[in-house]
């Protein structure tokens, strides 16, 4: 930004009262509960002191995940929101014109045939006239300038809040894609462990068949199980590749520029959920809606101010020289006050006032809806966290029991006390229980991210701007 533009923008912001931001209107305030309907039980998570999004990213995926989050700022949505902020800064600079003078310099030189009034002075067929002046005008209409500047400032604050919201969404998308990559890798690991177990069972079956302890059908069935498990590995490996490519596409990076794949699905990390009042007041989406409403209020006042007279001071000075008459340049000057009083414009101003009132009413409705949606999302996220925590506890218990049953069946089959069908059922049950437990862990991590997404003020820092 050029120095002159910086000065104009600074004048714009300094000339606006600092208390413009205000608070939520009563109609939106009544939608904020005093406390959450149910407590947030952090059992099964790793709570951290979440001051910024970097704290969460490092706690979950280390520096590599935080690096990916920073690269998310290059996404199309974030760069578009940054461009919107620049546009609002330009409009704020334009709004400063309501307080600042305008200065114009003009000059002219004309050459032509003398008219009858000058013909007596010369026999020449040409005459030259020179003019130069500087004119200044200062508007004296604070009743329109102040609302316009307040509207411009509110638009800028709304754009900044929308930028924070968009940046948080982009980072949440990266987190989700990164977790998809981790889950695909964990699923592949489960399939690979199952293939190992199936191969070990095949060795036991073949040994017992050699000792004439079992029929050959056990060996044939186990060979079929080994082949089936191995056939599922390419699909699991392809899922890992797809998840990796989805993340690289989201970040617009080549796959080889990504960090090492996560070794396993991480444990959930919960933020500290503030009170309903603090959450609403800090949420960028609500702040954007609040600033939009305040900007529409200011624009409504500006539309009303168009019914008042407008004043302006004007002054100018310069020189004039007319060949054949003046022996030297003649100084010129002027000063005055202009008054413009609107009398009748066919209802144009009244129509604009009505339009602004409608826009203001709509933005207030949007603000109320933003508050109501945020409260509902928070309550739903708390309920989802409790639900997924209980579900994960149950599925993890089922997984442990299934693995213990599998181990007992394997030992029993090797000792000749268990049938092959018992072992086969135990293997299938252990596989299903392991995948269910993995999905339950992912659901719990997603519930933690849903809670984290609510604390959007912690997902941006001053350095982000």
Describe this structure in words.
64% of the residues lie in helices and 10% in strands. With 465 residues, the chain is α+β, with helices and mostly antiparallel strands. It has one domain: Up-down Bundle (Outer membrane efflux proteins (OEP)), CATH 1.20.1600.10. The chain has a four-stranded antiparallel sheet, with no helix packed on it. A hairpin with a 7-residue loop joins strand 3 (310-322) and strand 4 (330-340).
Short description:
This protein is α+β, with helices and mostly antiparallel strands and 465 residues long. The protein has a single domain (3-100, 141-307, 346-464), classed as Up-down Bundle (Outer membrane efflux proteins (OEP)), CATH 1.20.1600.10.
Q: Keywords, please?
A:
Outer membrane efflux proteins (OEP); four-stranded antiparallel sheet
Number of domains: 1
In DSSP terms, counting alpha (H) and pi (I) runs of 4 or more, how many helices? 11
**Spatial sequence of strands, sheet with the most strands:** 1-2-3-4
Extended strand count: 4
Name the structural class. alpha+beta
SSE succession: HHHHEHEHHHHEEHH
Q: Give me the CATH fold name.
A: Outer membrane efflux proteins (OEP)
CATH level 1 class label: Mainly Alpha
Rg from Cα: 37 Å
Integer average pLDDT: 84
What is the H level of CATH, i.e. the homologous superfamily? Outer membrane efflux proteins (OEP)
N-to-C terminal Cα separation, in Å?
A: 15 Å
Write down the overall geometry.
elongated
Mind sketching the topology for me?
Layout: H1 3-14, H2 26-29, H3 53-71, H4 76-95, E1 102-112, H5 116-119, E2 127-139, H6 142-210, H7 216-251, H8 276-282, H9 284-305, E3 310-322, E4 330-340, H10 348-415, H11 420-454
Antiparallel strand pairs: 1-2, 2-3, 3-4
Helix pairs in contact: 1-4, 3-6, 4-6, 6-7, 6-9, 6-11, 9-10, 10-11
């Amino acid at each position: 930004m050029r120095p002159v533009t910086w000065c104009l923008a600074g004048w714009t912001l300094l000339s606006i009262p600092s208390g413009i931001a205000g608070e939520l209107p009563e109609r939106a305030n009544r939608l904020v509960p005093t406390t959450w309907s149910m407590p947030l039980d952090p059992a099964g998570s790793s709570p951290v002191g979440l001051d910024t999004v970097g704290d969460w990213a490092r706690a979950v995926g280390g520096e590599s995940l935080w690096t990916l989050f920073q690269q998310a700022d290059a996404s199309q949505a974030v760069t578009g929101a940054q461009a919107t902020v620049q546009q609002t800064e330009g409009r704020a600079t334009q709004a400063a014109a309501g307080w600042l003078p305008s200065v114009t310099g003009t000059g002219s030189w004309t050459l032509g045939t003398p008219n009858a009034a000058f013909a007596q002075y010369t026999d020449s067929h040409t005459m030259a006239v020179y003019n130069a002046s500087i004119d200044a005008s200062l508007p004296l209409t604070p009743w329109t300038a102040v609302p316009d500047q307040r509207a411009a400032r509110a638009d800028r604050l709304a754009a900044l809040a929308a930028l924070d919201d968009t940046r948080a969404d982009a980072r949440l998308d990266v987190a989700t894609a990164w977790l998809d990559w981790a889950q695909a890798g964990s699923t592949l690991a489960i399939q690979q462990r199952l293939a190992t177990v199936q191969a070990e069972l095949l060795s036991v079956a073949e040994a017992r068949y050699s000792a004439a302890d079992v029929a050959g059908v056990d060996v044939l069935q186990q060979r079929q199980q080994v082949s089936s498990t191995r056939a599922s590995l390419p699909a699991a490996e392809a899922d890992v590749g797809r998840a990796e490519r989805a993340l690289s596409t989201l970040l617009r990076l080549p796959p080889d520029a990504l960090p090492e794949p996560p070794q396993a699905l991480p444990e959930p990390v919960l933020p500290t959920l503030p009170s309903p009042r603090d959450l609403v007041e800090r949420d960028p989406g609500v702040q954007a809606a609040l600033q939009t409403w305040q900007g529409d209020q200011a624009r409504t006042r500006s539309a009303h101010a168009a019914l008042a007279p407008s004043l302006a001071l004007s002054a100018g000075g310069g020189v004039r020289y007319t060949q054949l008459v003046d022996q030297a340049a003649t100084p010129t000057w002027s000063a005055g006050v202009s008054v413009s009083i609107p009398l009748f414009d066919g209802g144009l101003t009244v129509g604009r006032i009505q339009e602004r009132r409608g826009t203001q009413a709509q933005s207030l409705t949007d603000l109320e809806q933003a508050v109501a949606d945020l409260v509902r999302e928070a309550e739903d996220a708390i309920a989802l966290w409790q639900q997924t925590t209980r579900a994960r506890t149950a599925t993890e218990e089922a997984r442990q029991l299934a693995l213990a049953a599998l181990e007992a069946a394997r030992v029993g089959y090797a000792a000749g006390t268990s049938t092959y069908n018992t072992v086969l059922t135990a293997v299938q049950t252990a596989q299903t229980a392991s995948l269910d437990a993995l999905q339950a862990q992912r659901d719990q991590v997603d519930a933690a991210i849903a809670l984290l997404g609510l604390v959007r003020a912690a997902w941006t820092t001053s350095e982000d701007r």
